[in-house]
Amino acid sequence: MRESLGAVPADAEVVVVGGGVVGLSVAFHLAEAGVRRVVVVERDLVGRGSSAKPVGGVRATFSDPGNILLGQRSLEAFERFGPGIGLRQVGYLFLCRSEEEVAEVERSTRLQRRLGGSGRMVSAAEAVGLNPYLNGDALLAASFSPRDGHAEPALVVATYRAMAEELGVVVCEGTEVVGIDLAGADIEAVQTDRGTVRTQRVVCAAGAWSARIGDMAGVPLPVEPVRRQIGITPPEAKPPTVPFTLDLSTTLYFHNCGDGLLLGISNPEQEPGFGREYSAEWRPAFDKAAQVVAPSLVGRELASGWAGLYENTPDHNALIGVSRQVHGFAYATGFSGHGFLQAPAVGEVVRDLYLGREPFMDPSPFHADRFAAAAPVRERHII
Questions:
Q1: Are 175 and 43 in contact (CB under 8 A)?
Q2: Predicted confidence band at 379 (pLDDT cuts at 50, 70, 90)?
Q3: Which CATH superfamily is domain 2-51+154-223+315-371 in?
Q4: pTM to 2 decimals?
Q5: What is the mean pLDDT of the chain?
């Protein structure tokens, strides 16, 4: 149900803060399980935050068991959605250019396979056969996971919104949370710029803006916004279909986007902040890396590009859990680039935590208190 701009609902069983793919997945799974009066509060339009600008990768190719299980469960959901979300299971190709990377990826691939994954190690020659843009002389080996690939985030967001609203979820766009009322350790209401929603339960899925929501409730959520940028090349006449390809040494990545290519690379020097202005400052680093692993991509003309926000945590892994200090406050945020691909499974996990049920995987390593206990998640396959 779409709430026109006006007063927000007077009360809710649960308020989900954030109308991106994670928040909408949470709302859908709660409503599907029979939770009544689920209200999603979104400061902008649905899917206009970090969900508007990811690279669209879907994968279970990780080194941490929890991330692998979240990725696999989400892949099952993406497969059920089918072609309606632009799903292309072209695989993921992680490039190894040092003996250390080979050893690390071999360990990860063995773990993925033990947990039911599709990954396998391939030679440099096989990697070039899968992706003809690559320079095989620069590679020692690679891992290839054919079940992985990419999808269109906007279509996934629209799908979750439609399913949630069909079940009665109220989505309030253009509605900013300005406070959370507490009585001791209990939640009493969510204050917005369009009115007050009485509730005893809140799920923070506000992405890069989550630290602010956590502060309102007295729940530390160490999430920091960091700008990331990508470019899209013009269409080619007959472009080869390639896996989503990532160079572990430099974090260069690229995959098909229509009849062009999506190009990107992380910037470890990027200062945190909410700025989303696009610039070409990432191109020199990309071209330097491409000169080694994919020379034909150096200096490629760009038809378009954009900047979006990563929601980074100190260990670049998600915060998923229920506060031990404030009753009824749950969170699913800080995905550090994994939010889109893990959203379906995370919706299930938060639903089960909300209902007091045992989730399909143990989410305790992703609890926000892990930093106080000096027990961060150790994930190696990140960009």
A1: yes
A2: confident
A3: FAD/NAD(P)-binding domain (3.50.50.60)
A4: 0.95
A5: 94
